[in-house]
Amino acid sequence: MSILAQNTLKVKMDSLEQIITQTKSEDSLSKLFSAQIELVREMEDFAKLAEIELKLAKISSYDGIEMQRHAQNALNYYSAQQDTANIIDATYQIAYSKQLQNDYDSTLFFAKEVVYLAEKSQNTVSVISGRLMLSSVHNHLGQYPESLQELNRSKILAENTPNNKSVITDILNRESFIYYSLGEYDESADRISQIIEILKPEGDARKLNIWSNNLASVYSLCNCVSFEKRKAVLKESINYAKQANFTYGKAFAYKHLADTYRDANQFDSTKYYLEQIEVLLPEINKPDFTGLVSVAQGSYWANVGNNKRAISYFLKGYNIWKTLGKKKDQMDIALYLNDLYQKQKDYANAHKFLNTYVALKDSLFSEEKIREVKELELAYDFRQKQMTDSLKNAERLLKSEYETTLQKRSKLMILFVGVAILIVAIIIYCGFIKQKKLSQLLQVKTDQVESELHQKELLLTEIHHRVKNNFQILSSLLELQAKGVDDQATKDLISEGKSRVRSMALIHNQLYNNDSLTIHLAGYLQNLISEIQKSFEGQTSEVKMDVDPNFTLDIDNMVPLGLIANELVTNAFKYATKNNNQLKLEVSLYEKNGQNLFVFKDNGPGLPPSFDIKTTKSTGIWLISRLALQLHGHYEYEYDNGAVFKIYFTQSEFVNA
Fold first, then answer.
1. Mind listing the pLDDT tens digit for each residue in 147-193?
2. CA proximity to 104, closest of 379, 322, 320, 324
3. Which CATH class is domain 286-394+443-484?
4. In three state form, how does the secondary structure of 113-136 look?
5. Nearest Cα to Cα of residue 149 among 139, 135, 159
6. Region label for 538, one of left (φ > 0), alpha (ψ between -120 and 50) or beta (otherwise)
7. Which domain of life does this protein belong to (predicted)?
8. Could you tell me which CATH number the domain at 487-649 has?
9. Distance between CA 495 and CA 614 in Å, rounded?
10. 3-class DSSP state of 587
């Protein structure tokens, strides 16, 4: 590039710098920084390019996606330059972007990387920032002891750090979240109030709006301030949002204000602020906020008695949460819809959303357990990917610089051939040294992950023993309860409960002994029949089993099918051997018309001819019917020289080894 062209680009850069210093709007700053990036690329100034990418990351929107993209670009450039201080800064920004996206596994990985790099370079401020983020993530995951431990480590470091105003603000921030999570809302509100007082002298209207909205959220839960105080905080928040031209912050303040008036039963004011939000929604274009507003609208219309409109808004919010995959919010709205449909006497939809609520609640519980088991594996994958990407980007930048140098010096190749060869040798040597260092770092991280994975396996083993002990305790309690009861019918009911606990305990034990999360049906049935026969002393049985030994079920399907098998085997021993006959059982499983068919036959007297499931008081038969529905199937009964039960069922996902 000619000297004239370079000077022209430099003049443009200086002009943009002057405009940036006078600009406060973050939207405008984003456009100005983007314009600078184009100029810097032409100038081939990679250090300046990394600096601007990091600035863009720090002012990006609160959804975290754009922030992550710019921060990753900055990290790639800084890694190529081996700029440790800025590598730490960019890594922290990536961790923050992941936190905004609720990707807590990735957040933990990048935050730990910040702490590791900062401790290695003795950067105390960055160590504190990394530990504060770890504290925040542990708090979000409900890991309060770990969260407080990281917070205490940060406090110790902050006490010995000069100019610690921003650090103290961060610590107050994390404290407020922890107290909020623990339900100590008055303490949380006190920490947020301290943060606002620290920020006021700086005059950052956007931050003041955000923290005022946070304070209003806590006040709505603690009932520790008056209605007038809540209004005053929100009025200030709206003024801050207007000063910063921050539409999203203003809409959020309107939403809190609508909730405040609703809590005070001032529904006209509630409606007014909800209407103000509806005007701003197209400009904001945030599905998650639209979902919150829909729920607020639904609550308003339910309070004023218009259940039909309330249902329409709640359905809108439900569909938004479903699209975004927010099962917890779906579950809460499903319960509201169940109540509203009951009031409308629409019992079909009421039942539908009650079932949805139960299914989502079970799903959230299962996902939490699976997440804990997968946590270390995901962290290891992210760490490997990050190391690989950084190495590739560094090699790409080095290659680009080398090719540019070669083009500029092509006319002087003969004169400077010796210098060019030396430069190439240095570049290759530096690349080799860098790759060696990265390999060593990767090995250290791999050892750390393997150690953490071993600890997780030990924890899983401990959980298994605790669950197994809990099943044994429950069974023993039922047995003690039976000894204290004289009524035979009550004893029989307790015995049935104990038998059902045993069937679930067998499922858990077999699941633990497998490497996968599936259970072999044939092995389970053999163990179940053997355990039940021990409860009927002196009785013998002949069992014919026609079940593929490799057929497996996941736990969601195995629990209901195991309970069905328990009921049928127990009834067979109870009734089929009354005339001192040897019990004969035939159990088979095969596929029929795209469904699995589980057939159970004994040589007993079968059900009475007058038996009617709609009027019977038999818990066992009713339980078989309900469990078959849970398996997305049904059951059939017939008599053929003994009772014959046929269970038709399907499973959403299964593995046959």
1. 878 888 887 888 788 777 777 787 888 788 787 878 888 888 888 99
2. 379
3. mainly alpha
4. HHHHHHHHCCCHHHHHHHHHHHHH
5. 135
6. left
7. Bacteria
8. 3.30.565.10
9. 24
10. strand
